[in-house]
Each structure stands twice: as C-alpha cells, then as structure tokens.
Design goal:
Helix content is 24%, strand content 33%. The protein has 580 residues and is an alpha+beta fold.
Length: 580
C-alpha cells in the first residue's frame, strides 16, 4: 500500500483519501435531502475553522486544494462531476467581500478541486475558500490561506517556515509539507540547509540521531516543467532541537561510613542534581529502620529538615538535611537511608555512623571468620571429593591426555606371581584377565596390555616385556598377600617396570592391593617407594565389584584422561561380576 507524508510531515495511507470521498458524498446527499424538505432556495453552509496556510516564494507554482470541514486530509474529487457536483473558488478581498474565481486557463486556473497559480505573485496573498454545489445546495470548505514571499527575501523567512521540534539524541524524519498531490520521482526532490548547503536528495530527510548542529532551516525544492515553462515548488521547515530530558540523580550519599563523636551535633545533606526539567517531580526522604524520620519541629535527637534548592554554575541541586542534635550510642552502626523517588525510578543511598577512632572491629572479625569458614569448607570438599570432581571435570570437558603421545596402550597390567603361587592365584588371574578389561576397556574405553593375553608366545621374554611396557602410559601392578608370603624377591617383569617408574620416570604406577598385606616391609624397597606415592588402590571384594564404586573411580582417576569413552555394555559386565 502506498504511503505519503501528510500536512504535518507524518506518514498516512493513500487509501484514506478514497474513504473520505465516499464519506463526503454520503454526508452531502443526506444534507441535501434534509434541507430540500425545508426550502428550495439556495443554501450555504460555512466552515468555522482557522485558515490552512500554504507558503510560496514569488514566481513559484502554488496550489490550493478544496477541503472539507471534517478533516484536514484532502478528498479525492476527480470523480465528483459524475455526481452532478461542481466546485467554485472564491477569494476574500475584504473590501468587496468574496470574489468568484472562474478561470480555466491563464495564470490562475481552477482544475476540479484545485486552485493553481502559474506562477504565484505577491498580490495572490490572501484567503481563499471553495464551495460544493449540486444545483440546490452549497457546502463551503475550509479557508485556505496563501502566503507569497517576495523573492528578495531569499528562499525563506521566519514567518513562512513550518515548525518541527526534535530531541537531541533521538531520531526524526522531515517530510516536505503539502506535496502529497504532486506526482514526482523522489530523486527530483532536493533538500538544502539554510538555503546554501545541498544535504540530501529524496522524498524525506532522515536523522538517525539528532545533534545540536542539526538545528536550522531545511528547504525542500521540486523543479518541473509545465506548458514549456520551468517551475519550482519550495517548502521550508524550521527544525528546533531541545536537550533530552535528564532525570534527577542522587549524588550523595551512596554507601557512606562517617566517623562521629558521641554527644556532638552534625547535619548530613542528602543531595540530588535536579536534571533539566522545569518542574521535576521529586520526592526526597530520610528513613531509619524502614520508617520515615520525623520532620524537624522543635528539639529532637534526630530529624529531617525541609528540602531546599541550590543553584551553582547553572546547575540546580535539591538538598534534604538529616539533623542530629546529639549523637547517641543507639545511632551508631545503623543504616540511615536517603530515598530519591521520581516518576521513573527509585534510588537509595545510606550512611552508617561510626565512633571516631574505633573501627567496626566486630564486623571485620565476623567477616574474616565467615571467609575462613568458607575456605575451610571448600578445602574439605575438595579433599574429600577430589576424585569425583576430577572425573566430573573430565566428563564435561572431554579432556584427552592421550592425544599425540604415540603410546599404543593406556596401561600395562602386571600380575605378580611365581610358579608356586600360580596355581593358588585363580582369583587374581580372573581379576586381571577378565574383570579389569571388562570394566576399563568395555565400560570406559581404555586399552590394556596384558602379557598373558596380548603377547604371542615365543621369542625373547625380556625383550617383549620391555617393548610392551614402553608402549604403555601406566603400569598397573596387582599385588596380593600370596606374593609377599612366598618371599619372592623379584621378577624381570617387575624390575623392568619399576625401573621405568622410578629411574627413567617414563611411566606412572598404579598399585592394586588385591588382598590385604599385613607387613609391607617384606616387599622390595622399590614397591615400598610406590606405596609411599599414594598411587595405591585397595580391592574390597564385592563392594568394589560395582562399576560406580570408589575402587573404580580411583583407578579411573589414576588412569590418563581419555575422551570419547565407550558406551556401557551392562550385559557383559553382569556376566563377569557374577563369576567373581
């Protein structure tokens, strides 16, 4: 739908003009019928309305449009003749009254609802009116005032400018007034500021954010040809700007601690900068323990005085004093609130009185105790739930310590045994060969190297052990009581792994105490050093068999962080646990 600027520079819909035509025809018909029952003589109904002004420069084209009394929007009247309605224009000459203008050609022409001047002269300045007539009844339209300015005054004068107001910092659109009936390309309309500077070409002038220098006179100019002669139409708008409204602001107090002497008298001013409104709606009050402080009237220990306005360097301040006739113990370490209430906001500041030379010792002690308590609680939580916190962090971040380290396995599983204990270590073997991989590999996505399972028989055993340990990130040692009781001093497999752990530090150990060991002194010194590193996990039978038990959480904690762990295979897990 087409949109146009109206007389006030606002946007309107062109369809409203068509609606106005039909409303006029209906009103005219009803009025004619009612008056026809009373008299057949010629009747005249006049509009009682101020004049609608049109400004023009001498030598420019000017156009007046016949308008109804019930609205300022022009009525489309190109089709009125089909309904037997004619329009007559008059000029009020004051001396001779209304003079009919009937010219169809020449400098002043009547075209339907339009009265056009080709061009306008200073003598055309005056008041014009139009009349709708159907043979028996007249309806007179609004008065149209044409003001033609002599060309020697320039492109505008103060009295012919259309006023527009704006607020600095806001946006606005300037539309060229009384141009809605002209058909023209928007690129043909040029805008000038103060008649000199060409600022824009287009149907309207947009200011996204007004600044002080944008104030001034803006002239829109349209040039076109008529009967071989070039004509101009100019409209001038005076853009007046004002500062944006500034709300009153509390500048004192904010959060103030004031040292006082018991027994002295003091006055504390709650101060507000009043803003730029002429009559700001401001309420300024003091409160103590959520109650209004009483207004000073006579002698009170504490009261509020009447507010007063103070102007300094063109800035107005509003002050509300809080008066202490005598500082008492009950006034110390208490909140006295100053509340600023406006139509848009509420601001609160406060003061706390403290005895001079004495800091708020108790408050500081309470604060320190609270901080220390919080730190202790946080430390206990971190120590107590350190493993859970680390695992949770790994799961949330997807941290992966194995990326790019060229290691093939996450852990080498070492089951300490000898020929004598091999036959009696069925539980240890089942744990190492079945349960450990079922949980760590299937449930959590780790890859284990188990010599009995993954290393092909044959070849140099010593070389194979060293080769596979070097390909692992951790060394899991499964230790049981039988190993200690057998007084088995060492194996090449154990010594090779511990050399990597303690001497070369290429791999981190995880010592699983599968069965309780009463005397750790019987262990080799290298294993005793591993025990002191606190990288030991104790197996507690069926309690540890559950996947979410503390045993498996700590094993995972000691294992490298690895992203993209595999999904659960609960069926396989339940079968394995059942056999333990």
């Amino acid at each position: 739908m087409e949109r146009k600027c109206n007389l006030d520079g606002e946007w309107i819909n062109s369809s409203r003009m068509n609606v106005m035509l039909w409303m006029f025809l209906l009103t005219f018909t009803i009025s004619e019928s009612m008056n026809g029952c009373i008299t057949k003589e010629k009747q005249i109904d006049r509009c009682h309305r101020d004049c609608s002004k049109v400004f023009a420069l001498e030598g420019e084209h000017a156009r007046l449009r016949c308008r109804l009394c019930n609205g300022s929007t022009p009525v489309v009247m190109s089709d009125l003749q089909r309904h037997g309605i004619t329009i007559t224009w008059f000029k009020d000459t004051y001396e001779n009254g209304l003079v009919e203008l009937s010219g169809k050609t020449g400098r002043i022409a009547v075209e339907g609802s339009l009265l056009e001047f080709w061009p306008a002269t200073v003598n055309d300045t005056g008041t014009y009116s139009c009349s709708f007539f159907n043979g028996t009844h007249n309806i007179t339209g609004t008065n149209e005032c044409l003001d033609v300015t002599p060309i020697n005054k320039g492109c505008y004068s103060e009295e012919i400018a259309y006023g527009r107001n704006g607020v600095i910092g806001s946006s606005t659109v300037l539309c060229c007034p009384l141009m809605e009936e002209y058909n023209y390309n928007k690129e043909a309309l040029k805008w000038y500021k103060d008649c000199l500077e060409h600022v824009y070409t287009g149907s309207s002038l947009l200011f996204k954010k007004l600044e002080k220098e944008n104030a001034g006179y803006y002239t829109c100019k349209l040039s076109f040809e008529h009967s071989g002669v070039q004509y101009n139409i100019t409209r001038t708008l005076k853009l007046t700007l004002k500062e944006a409204s500034v709300e009153p602001k509390l500048i004192y107090p904010h959060q103030e601690r004031i040292e006082v002497v018991l027994g002295e008298a003091i006055t504390i001013n709650c101060t507000v900068v009043a803003g730029n409104e002429k009559k700001p709606q401001v309420q300024l009050n003091w409160f103590f323990k959520d109650f209004h402080v009483i207004t000073c009237n006579g002698v009170q220990p504490v009261c509020k005085a009447s507010w007063r306005a103070i102007t300094e360097k063109n800035v107005t301040y509003v002050v509300r004093p809080l008066v202490f006739a005598q500082i008492k113990e009950e006034h110390l370490n208490q909140f006295f609130k100053c509340v600023l209430q406006t139509s848009k906001q509420k601001t609160i500041g406060y003061i706390i009185l403290q005895e001079k030379g004495k800091s708020n010792f108790h408050g500081i002690v309470k604060l320190l105790i609270s901080i220390i308590t919080v730190l202790i609680v946080v430390a206990i939580v971190c120590v107590q739930f350190n493993i859970q916190i680390v695992l949770c962090f790994r799961d949330m971040t997807g941290k992966d310590e194995t990326f790019g380290d060229s290691k093939e396995y996450d852990a080498y599983v070492l089951l300490l045994k000898s020929d004598e204990t091999l036959l009696s270590a069925k539980e240890e073997q089942q744990f190492a060969l079945e349960l450990l991989p079922a949980i760590l590999e299937v449930q959590f996505g780790y890859r284990l190297c188990i010599f009995e399972r993954d290393v092909s028989p044959g070849g140099a055993s010593a070389d194979n052990i060293l080769f596979y340990i070097n390909k692992c990130r951790r060394l899991i040692i499964i230790l049981s009581k039988e190993y200690v009781d057998n007084e088995y001093s060492s194996t090449y497999e154990l010594m090779t792994g511990l050399h990597q752990v303690l001497v070369e530090r290429k791999i981190k150990p995880i010592l699983i105490e599968f069965k309780p060991i009463n005397n750790t002194k019987l262990l080799p010194e290298s294993l005793q050093l591993v025990l002191k590193s606190k990288r030991t996990v104790k197996w507690k039978g069926s309690k540890s068999a559950v996947k979410h038990s503390y045993f498996w959480k700590k094993v995972r904690y000691l294992m490298p962080a690895k992203g993209g762990q595999l999904s659960q295979h609960s069926q396989r897990e339940s079968v394995v646990l059942k056999n333990i």
